[in-house]
Amino acid sequence: xxxxxxxxxxxxxxxxxxxxxxxxxxxxxxxxxxxxxxxxxxxxxxxxxxxxxxxxxxxxxxxxxxxxxxxxxxxxxxxxxxxxxxxxxxxxxxxxxxxxxxxxxxxxxxxxxxxxxxxxxxxxxxxxxxxxxxxxxxxxxxxxxxxxxxxxxxxxxxxxxxxxxxxxxxxxxxxxxxxxxxxxxxxxxxxxxxxxxxxxxxxxxxxxxxxxxxxxxxxxxxxxxxxxxxxxxxxxxxxxxxxxxxxxxxxxxxxxxxxxxxxxxxxxxxxxxxxxxxxxxxxxxxxxxxxxxxxxxxxxxxxxxxxxxxxxxxxxxxxxxxxxxxxxxxxxxxxxxxxxxxxxxxxxxxxxxxxxxxxxxxxxxxxxxxxxxxxxxxxxxxxxxxxxxxxxxxxxxxxxxxxxxxxxxxxxxxxxxxxxxxxxxxxxxxxxxxxxxxxxxxxxxxxxxxxxxxxxxxxxxxxxxxxxxxx
Amino acid sequence: xxxxxxxxxxxxxxxxxxxxxxxxxxxxxxxxxxxxxxxxxxxxxxxxxxxxxxxxxxxxxxxxxxxxxxxxxxxxxxxxxxxxxxxxxxxxxxxxxxxxxxxxxxxxxxxxxxxxxxxxxxxxxxxxxxxxxxxxxxxxxxxxxxxxxxxxxxxxxxxxxxxxxxxxxxxxxxxxxxxxxxxxxxxxxxxxxxxxxxxxxxxxxxxxxxxxxxxxxxxxxxxxxxxxxxxxxxxxxxxxxxxxxxxxxxxxxxxxxxxxxxxxxxxxxxxxxxxxxxxxxxxxxxxxxxxxxxxxxxxxxxxxxxxxxxxxxxxxxxxxxxxxxxxxxxxxxxxxxxxxxxxxxxxxxxxxxxxxxxxxxxxxxxxxxxxxxxxxxxxxxxxxxxxxxxxxxxxxxxxxxxxxxxxxxxxxxxxxxxxxxxxxxxxxxxxxxxxxxxxxxxxxxxxxxxxxxxxxxxxxxxxxxxxxxxxxxxxxxxxxxx
Lengths: 471, 482
Known about the structure:
The complex is a heterodimer of chains A (471) and B (482). Chain A has helices at residues 8-16, 22-40, 50-58, 60-63, 106-113, 156-163, 180-186, 220-230, 274-289, 305-320, 338-351, 357-377, 402-407, 413-418, 447-461; strands spanning 43-46, 75-79, 117-122, 169-174, 189-192, 212-217, 260-264, 293-297, 383-387, 422-429, 435-441. With 471 residues, chain A is an alpha/beta fold. In chain A, helix 5 links the parallel strand 2 and strand 3. The longest helix of chain A has 21 residues, at 357-377. Helices cover 36% and strands 24% of the residues of chain B. Chain B has helices at 59-71, 128-132, 205-222, 263-282, 328-336, 342-353, 357-363, 367-382, 387-396, 406-422, 424-437, 439-446, 452-463, 470-481, and strands spanning 8-19, 75-76, 79-80, 83-86, 96-99, 106-123, 146-166, 170-176, 179-185, 192-198, 234-244, 255-258, 290-295, 300-306, 316-317, 324-325. With 482 residues, chain B is α+β, with helices and mostly antiparallel strands. Mean pLDDT of chain B is 87; it is low at 124-145. The interface between A and B is medium-sized, with 42 and 28 residues.
């Protein structure tokens, strides 16, 4: 039996039909990590308790929990921005090289309580600062589709661990595209939920008003399964809205006939790479074939998004990183890498008295305009479809200018500024066999609709069935 | 108008921090600690500023802050938010303090206080009344025999803002294993703190003390804090400057004296600064704008930090806490929960019960005492005991209100007064008889041997066993001797 490309539902079905035990599944994934991780460098820490935790689930009493635990015995990889009690958490930075947290993030606790078994912690750009994964203090994570290419960042290890089937799902954070971009570079499904749907408690803060807690899966269905577990208020994050619980799996099999899907013209410009454009156009055609009405719309302030983002985000970063002074935990500030220092300097400057009005305040005003762009457009269409990145993955070391790196997020940051949800799904490949994703974007709390569209698209295209060749 | 160049007027604005007595801390579920708690026992990821921790607001604290603002006649912002005040200090766990800057919960309020104005001075003989007269405010020992003739007038002190923030941890310097170390106790980190800022309306150390006393009373009435100075519940920072009398502009400088923990020290610090500034100004210098500290051992202020080192706090809206909205209805509800405040109660006691202002002031110092008095008055009504008598009894006998029930108090008052009135004539006869039988003692008294009074009292008591009130007997014996 080849279980290499198993999804969460495949594993759950296998348990149900008693094809394998939890112990066998965990062993399979751990062996695969043993074999492939030394080169891919997706995991930075392996959870030593995984095998024991699996055995605990295999006893007959525990197996009774199968029906009540939606992630019973499902292996999980955790981005190293999420605190894990008693398991080292680094944020990809040497500042926290030896930091063992005394508590776990809410999202982690919820997943574990739902039966998931953590296999360990995943590499990322230090403090989630980056679009390629190259800012990690623990080395690059390689793209399994072509090891000369970046996997995308900042959730580089998360994307690669799922793409390379080291785990069937992994957590991620998306502040400016850190889930969607690597998902689109690795042929995985990446969800960035609405700001305020999933608790940020216990996840190391990058930019607090933009950080969104999401995940990587192989399929849209799996993505909905995970969100069913992670969504909802926990009493520790005051920005999480108190809402009635939704079942995100409910509309997965609904067709998308008659749905109005907008294509923002500002996202499809000449800056788009040839292959990306081709894949995108083909995807639009597919949506049409599925019965959706695809129309061109406008988000007029899109051009200002990157500038706005690179004022608000570093401002918050400069304040959020202040606690890492080495007094109570971790190493001192000299251990900060270049990119973190750059953002601390930028943010300190933009918040300084005399500059605040010209930078931070102005940026917040533009942010309001960007939010209005989306509110206006969602009065005309149900959802939007857009490319995730202007180009497929690039070669390691090819973007040395930080500004060039920042611009790769041009199509993902507007969503973070608006706090709305988006899902990146596999849409095809470039000529040299690099994955290309597209994103569906919806109004606040429209995740169910995004899963519906994503699932229709996925069933029609089945790109997720393609896997990288790994030895 | 002829103004002497060295006649100055003191300009003082106050910043007051009040630690709230809420059950839990401002942004986490940790218990609001007591000083008895061992260091770092009331902490969690939030108040320790651990990675990933987020603030979760304490609704009770916010309502208490709004209560204080309303009691100080502030306008309440229907929409306000928290902001981050960024600075580095080892006791500041997150590297920023969650506070309010642009939109405090309360703004533009005032507090009316009673301050003395000097009408003139007069030579004065030590009389029993002058000892107790509240209007006779004294300046210092040297002028003990010259009392100012003063009158209390109403003075309005503007309240600039009332906002909510959190306290920091505490640094402690000690020696561990022979090494000098700095330790941090985070028990206090995240304790709800209300900051009250006044307009520069205060004109003397004395006025500052009166203002603070009134403010402390209000805070206790509201039940939001014990406002215990010794426990650090209230921390005081006067901003002091001097200008030439007659000028309207604020002086071009001010000196802040930080973290004073007693009203008396505030008064002293202001007086110390007045003299220091005057000396500099007389020389044509402008005092340096700076932060100073009060040294209670040397009785002086000392420079701590000059303006050049002032922080740029890089305030920005706290993204982790959504804006806080108050509907007019909610504000009204909080307003209705505010009890009658001491200044109003003093007036009502004078008018409704006809008691002396001085007594009314003493009785309203603590809400519990004022409540007790009113309960006693209510019970006293049935027995025709007048409120002034009750007031006098409570104050003079220093009644412990926690031990004597109001009904018991009235019973005691009735017993005491029955001893007085019933025997009035009988007592007089008895004394007449005793004085007649002890003519030697009467002669001795007239020669100045006042100690015979005690002997005569004993004789009266023997003659009239039901006479028990010593005060009354002594008074009558002396009266009849003379």
